[in-house]
Amino acid sequence: MSEKDEKSEEEKQPIIVKKIVKGGGHHGGAWKVAYADFVTAMMAFFLLLWLLNVTTDEQKNAISNYFDPTHPKVSDSNSGAGGVLGGLTMTPEGAMAQTKNPLTPQQVNKQKPKGTDNEGKKQSTKEKAREAAEEKRFKSAEEKLKQAIQESEQLAKLAENLMVDMTPEGLRIQIVDQDGESMFPSGSARMFEKTKKILEMISEITLEMPNEISIRGHTDSSQYSPGATYTNWELSADRANASRRVMLESGTPTERLNNVMGKADTEPLIPDNPQDARNRRITIILLKEALTNPLPDEPEEEERATEEEVEEEIPPFTFEEEPPAPPPQVPVGTFRRTPGDVEFP
Fold first, then answer.
1. What proportions of the chain, in percent to the nearest 5, are helix, strand and coil?
2. DSSP E strand stretches across 191-301
C-alpha cells in the first residue's frame, strides 16, 4: 500500500473525543445530609405541637414567665455573689432567685410579723386575754337567751325560731321564720308583737356587752310582680331597720350599732331550697372586738433587748483598705544625675 493510500485510510477513521465528568447527579451524598436535617426539624416541630397540646394554661404561663426577663419573680442577678459574700442560686423549679446563705439574727427579727414572740405565737398576751373573756361573755349570753325563752310562756313556743351559734365574725343570733310561724307579715316590714318581745329580750341580755352589733335582714327567693318598684332588697333592709329601732328603744346605745344591711335572698339559710320559710330571718351578730377594735401592735421589751444584743454582738462587715504600693524604682544605670541646672562644657 502506497503512502497515498495510507493517508486516505487515516482520514476516513472518525476522531473520538472522550470527556470525563467529575462527580454528579444522584451519585453524590450531600442530599442525604439535607434530608436528615429536614426530618430532624419536622420531628422537633411535631414534638413541640404535642407538648403544647398536653400542657395546661397554667404551665404555659409558667414557661412564658421563665423566659421573660422582665418578670418580677425572675432573678435579675448574674452568677456570683448577690451581696457581701452571699451568693444567689437558682431553684430546681426555674430561675427564681433564692438566698441559700443563712439569715443573720437582724434579718430574722425584721422578717418576723408584728406581735410575734420567739416561740412563733401570733397573738399578744393582751389579745389572748381579751378573746378568752369575750368567749366567756358569748357563752353566757347564749345560755341566758335559751333560759329566758324557756322561762317565758309566750316565748317558749318560739324556741325553734331562735338560732344561736358562733361564726368567724362573732356570736350570731338569728330570728328565723318557720312554717306557720312567721316573724313578719308576708311582704311587710311591720313585725308581730312576738318578734318585738324577742328583740327586747336580746337587747336586755346583750346590753352590758361591749361588742358592736350588726343587724341584717334576709328574705326567701319569692319575688314581687314584674315591674314592681319595691323588691326583696327594700323589704330586707326595712325589716333590719325596724329591728334596729326596737333595739334602740330597748336601751341599746347608738354607738354600738356597727351596720344595718338588707341582704335580700343572696345568703339563704337553706341553699337547696331558696323558697324555704327559714330563709326569711333577722340576723343579729355581736362582732368580735378583734374586728372592730384591734389592739395596736407593740413590740415586747424582750424582743427589743434581743435586737440590741444581736446588733452589739455582730459588728458590720467592712473592707480593709490596703496601703498603696510604692512607685517602682527605675534604675539610673551608669549615667550621672544632673543637679537640675543646665551645664555647658
1. 40, 15, 45
2. 213-218, 257-262, 281-287
Q: Locate 237 and state its grid cell.
A: 333592709
Q: How sure is the predictor about 159, in pLDDT bands with cuts at 50, 70 and 90?
A: confident
Main-chain dihedrals φ then ψ at residue 299, nearest 5 degrees: -70, 140
Element (H, E) at 173: strand 170-176
- Taking the whole predicted model, whether its pTM rises above 0.85 is answered as no
Q: In what order do the strands lie in the sheet with 162-167?
A: 162-167, 170-176, 281-287, 213-218, 257-262
Q: What does the pLDDT look like over 276-301, one tens digit per residue?
A: 999 999 999 999 998 998 887 665 55
Q: Show the cell assigned to 47.
A: 414534638
Strands 94-99 and 170-176 come out as: unpaired
Give 229-274 pLDDT, tens digit per residue. Answer: 999 999 999 999 999 999 999 999 999 999 999 999 999 999 999 9
3-state secondary structure of 281: strand
Cα–Cα distance for residue pair 192/155, rounded to 1 Å:
13
What pLDDT shows up at residue 96? 45
Long-range contacts of 247-255 (CB under 8 A, 24+ apart): 247/199, 247/202, 247/203, 247/213, 247/215, 247/284, 250/199, 250/200, 250/203, 250/204, 250/207, 251/203, 251/204, 251/207, 252/203, 252/206, 252/207, 252/213
What size, in residues, is the chain?
345
The domains located in the chain, with CATH, are 125-292 (3.30.1330.60)
